Amino acid sequence: MTEAKAKRSSSLPNLTRYLTPPVIALLLAIALFLFGGVISPGFVNPNQAINIVRLAAFLGIIAAGQTLVIISGGEGIDLSVASIVTLGAILTFRLTDGQNELILPVLGVVLLVGAGIGLVNGLGIVFLRIPPLVMTLAMAGVVQGLILQVTRGQLEGDTPDLMSELIAQPLIGPLPGVIFLWIGLGIAMWLLLERTPYGKMLFAVGINRTTATLSGVRVPLVVVLTYAMSGMLAAFGGFVLLGFTDTVFLNLGGRYLFPSIAAVVVGGTLLSGGKGSYWGTMSGALVLQLINSLLQAQGLPEATQSIILGVVLLVLISIYGRQRAFRL
Amino acid sequence: MNQAKFRRFLARNSYLFALLLLVVVVLINYSRQDNLFEPSVLNRNIRVFLPLVILAAGQAIVIIGGGIDLSVGAMVSLCNALLVTWITPETAGGDILLAITLVALVGMAAGLLNGIAVAYLRLQPIVTTYATSFIFAGLALTILPRPGGELPRDMTRLYRRLIEVDAFGNIPIIQDIPILREIPPAFIVIAIVLLLWAFVRQTRLVQYIYAAGDNAEAAYTTGIPVQRIRLGTYVISGFFSAMAALALTMSLGSGSPTSGDAMTLDSIVAVVLGGTRLRGGQGGIAGAMMGVVILGVIRNIISFYDVPTWSQTLVDALIILIALAGPGLVRYISDLIRRYRLQGGRAA
Hints:
The structure holds 2 protein chains of 2 kinds. Chain A is mainly α. Chain A has one domain: ABC transporter involved in vitamin B12 uptake, BtuC (Orthogonal Bundle), CATH 1.10.3470. Chain A contains 15 helices and 2 strands. Chain A has a two-stranded antiparallel ribbon with strand order 1-2. In chain A, helix 5 (81-96) runs parallel beside helix 7 (132-151), helix 8 crosses helix 12 and helix 13 crosses helix 14 (278-297). The two termini of chain A are 24 Å apart. Chain B is mostly helical. Chain B folds into 2 domains: 3-305, ABC transporter involved in vitamin B12 uptake, BtuC; 307-348. Chain B has helices at residues 3-12, 16-32, 39-64, 72-86, 93-120, 125-143, 153-160, 178-181, 185-200, 204-214, 216-221, 226-252, 263-273, 285-304, 312-347; strands at residues 163-164, 182-183. In chain B, helix 4 crosses helix 12, helix 10 crosses helix 12 (226-252) and helix 14 crosses helix 15. The two termini of chain B are 27 Å apart. At the A-B interface, helix 7, helix 13 and helix 15 of A face helix 6, helix 11, helix 13 and helix 15 of B.
């Protein structure tokens, strides 16, 4: 169908075909970066670029599960990612207590805990028909409450040295490990969405649950699995984030909550579900991080930064985040 | 009453579960605090709830119309900042009314921006109102960089003091009910909002809001101006946010650039607790108001049961989760029972 459309618009056949939302977002990121060089000299240099990609990587990893949930449709959204990120980081901090040999087993525990929380989200949404927005919001409160209950505000533990070496510090040349991790995740997510039966079913569920059911997709299973994966990926995001922050605090993940949704939307994934890609989310994360870095580099007051960010976000989502027009 | 009729009755009166829950939590609270129904105690509780009660009513109208407004908290912050900037302890009565009117207009203008973006530019409500919330929060921070400001004493006193009513004079029984002799001002505000809503509920315009939220395409084809209706719901939400900010400012007596931020998500939870579905087209503001009181009373109960400080968040969140799951749980179990019966019937 996209081919047919491309053929019809004969003047720019190739351009329109390749100008998909993820590509637009990526071009936008590059343009923003160069624009940064124009308004503040010295912004464009390799170190700055690497730093921005590194910061975007954390948002991108955290937004991976959000992408899946939003594609699954049915008002799908996951507001529990932020507290699961915090939980993942605190668990890693506490359980490894700085011991390198415990990293892998603890990662296993962290992923299981995250998947478990996501599983409860999915069960509540599918079987108790609680709207995803409030289900995951309430779950965020429960997770935050669990963290307070268990830690009593005493965040004891340590970050294994190996983690910050592998994640945040230059690993190959000047490139830190998290960038490779992010690219790896990008490939894995592409395979998951485009090359597995699960991916096909996920898009089918997102487009129309009734037709998906009629074509033999077990919709409840797919949806529950998607929320479980979102929880698992958020916990993984917390694990990775710890390698960067080296320390934990009670609201570590808080500032990633709505950006994780914004990254998905800026990347061209429809909030109504059924259409989207993780490449888009990756580009979206880059764009958001660039805007943030640009605003900070200007040394503007916090209030002005906030207003500009709001306006830029509005412009970004109006490029292709538009819904269908009514037709008679 | 047969089952189908009963189900329809439940669907029409979506706030019934909230009402039941409200009675339960109030009784639990009462069992621990026997002076709960004394006018002064009731007043202290309800005046704290009032800002969120008003906010949730506005949120409910947007949600019924098929949208959602994540900028309500930021609009409250903005209006709170404006109120304490424009009103000082020396401001004269007429100027205070002018300031309040202007703030109401600012709230409606903020809502208008949301409405234009969602209804006419056809942007997705969640991300749009999230983006505009940054604009409003930034404006609030520009106007009032740090917490401060002070309202005239008379304004805060007006909000706090019970209103003495002589209307029931010497009628026996009624004159012995303390709460009918001394009425918290917040009750009067809530009563006015509910009466207005009951009054407009059956008008064509409000029916249009429900129709637009239930099925926008169908509403459009039957000639309902869906875009204008959607725009209207956001303007109403902006107005309610300004009024919530007025209540909050009178309750606190001062301002803060982030005063309303935490209220956004609570307002949505309250709407859902009140039986309004997030998909739109159904529900009402009475349920949303009950939802806010339920949330507040749950927090009261937690403090009265001496729940350890570190467990309070968890207990609070678990109770809210159970309350949210309630209707679904009832439906799930009744479905299971029906299926079991059907199978039994087939076997026999």
